[in-house]
From TrEMBL:
PANTHER family: MITOCHONDRIAL TRNA-SPECIFIC 2-THIOURIDYLASE 1, TRNA 5-METHYLAMINOMETHYL-2-THIOURIDYLATE -METHYLTRANSFERASE. Residues 221-287 form the tRNA-specific 2-thiouridylase MnmA-like central domain. One of its GO terms (molecular function) is tRNA-uridine 2-sulfurtransferase activity. The gene is mnmA. This is tRNA-specific 2-thiouridylase MnmA.
């Protein structure tokens, strides 16, 4: 197991770690591995907000987490972050949809809940680290700074590329990474399930959770209709001609080609893609394919806001700058990015203009949605990212 911990730092006791036990196999095995390696482990179940009228799964998940803690014979805590989750994840998601952006609640959940409130709670209550079952790696790398060695922590992709979750963790800072362990980041999912059986954990055969962080698999259109209220609107061609109807502009993402109705009388029989949406007028504009792609959706560069570089020392020499200013200069070095989860990495360049960070793709991209995360990589190292304007 790879970790950045130094067990000799406090010889009179074992390093103490609070493990976020979700009730699933990944977090349960994480706790077991840490216990095996000599850590003082406490299991923590995070109780989040559940939408009214939706299935309440947290009680079942908590029971599963308790069973894992009992088998491992470790202390167990329930941390109620219901109000924080509603305010900082759900309300954020609703606010973004209201203004026509496509939010990434999983990123915000990690930032504000798991590595925000949970990490603060753990450190306040005597923990040295928190740990989760994310498929990503935190790797220590000593750096020489001003005549002294300082441990820097690189966030890297998980070994299992089908499960890698580094995309959702780009907001992590050096100060946070020094207190975070990812015990299964070097393993394949199949290995994790085998280890669950070896440790006698009932989660060995439990199905993976699906959908949004803590909320699970919900119908987003139904959810937004209930909490925002939407109404049907017109589908327009670029000429302004109405050719159909949709269920509410907030429901659609740039590049989407399903979920709206085209009038049977319309002469346009080609597949149509959303190229623009007007939230105030409640309209979406669509266009057909051109040369195999809807050319109106091709984007060469984007501007980022709310940026974070978790390890600027990993950037090529031509891009290094003081940590305080996070200044970046245009470079032709080997950088890449993702604009959505599990997407193949895109080669890109990065530059700073004033307070703005600009990303230029080597090849124009389609389906770039304001509000989504753009995450930067150098090889397998996740450098950080930002929100697309």
């Amino acid at each position: 197991m790879q970790s950045q911990s130094n067990k000799k730092a406090c010889p009179e006791r074992s390093p103490r770690v609070f493990v976020g036990l979700s009730g699933g196999v990944d977090s349960a095995v994480s706790a077991a591995l840490l216990q095996r390696d000599g850590f003082d482990v406490t299991g923590v179940f995070i109780k989040a907000w559940t939408p009214e009228g939706y299935p309440c799964s947290w009680k079942e998940d908590r029971r599963s987490a308790i069973r894992a803690a009992a088998i491992l014979d470790i202390p167990f805590i329930t941390l109620d972050l219901e109000k924080e989750y509603k305010k900082e994840v759900v309300d954020y998601m609703i606010a973004e949809y209201k203004i026509g952006r496509t939010p990434n609640p999983d990123v915000m959940c990690n930032k504000e809940i798991k590595f925000g409130h949970f990490l603060k709670f753990a450190l306040k209550n005597g923990a040295d680290f928190v740990a989760t079952g994310h498929y990503t790696r935190a790797v220590a790398s000593p750096q020489s700074r001003r005549g002294r060695d300082e441990v820097r922590v690189r966030l890297e992709e998980g070994t299992d590329k089908n499960k890698d979750q580094s995309y959702f963790l780009w907001t992590l800072t050096q100060e946070q990474l020094k207190h975070i362990l990812f015990p299964i980041g070097h393993l394949q999912k199949s290995e994790v399930r085998k280890l669950a059986g070896k440790f006698g954990l009932p989660q060995e055969t439990k199905k993976d959770s699906q959908g949004l962080c803590f909320l699970g698999k919900i119908d987003m259109k139904e959810f937004l209709t209930k909490y925002i209220g939407t109404k049907k609107g017109k589908v327009l061609l670029e000429s302004g001609e109405p050719i159909g109807e949709h269920d509410g502009a907030i429901h659609y993402t740039i590049g989407e080609r399903h979920g709206f109705t085209i009038n049977q009388k319309s002469e346009n029989k080609s597949p149509l893609y959303v190229v623009r949406k007007d939230i105030e007028k409640n309209t979406i504009t669509v266009a057909p394919k051109h040369f195999g792609r809807p050319s109106q959706m091709l984007v060469k560069n984007v501007i980022l806001e709310d940026t974070n570089l978790n390890d600027p020392t990993s950037l090529p020499p031509s891009q290094k700058a003081s940590e305080g200013q996070r200044k970046l200069r245009e470079t032709k070095e080997n950088l890449s990015c993702r604009i959505r989860y599990r997407q193949q990495k895109i080669k890109c360049k990065i530059e700073q203009k004033g307070n703005e960070i600009k990303i230029t793709f080597d090849e124009p991209q389609m389906g770039v949605s304001p509000g989504q995360s753009l995450v930067l990589y150098q090889g397998e190292i996740c450098l950080g990212g930002g929100i697309i304007l």
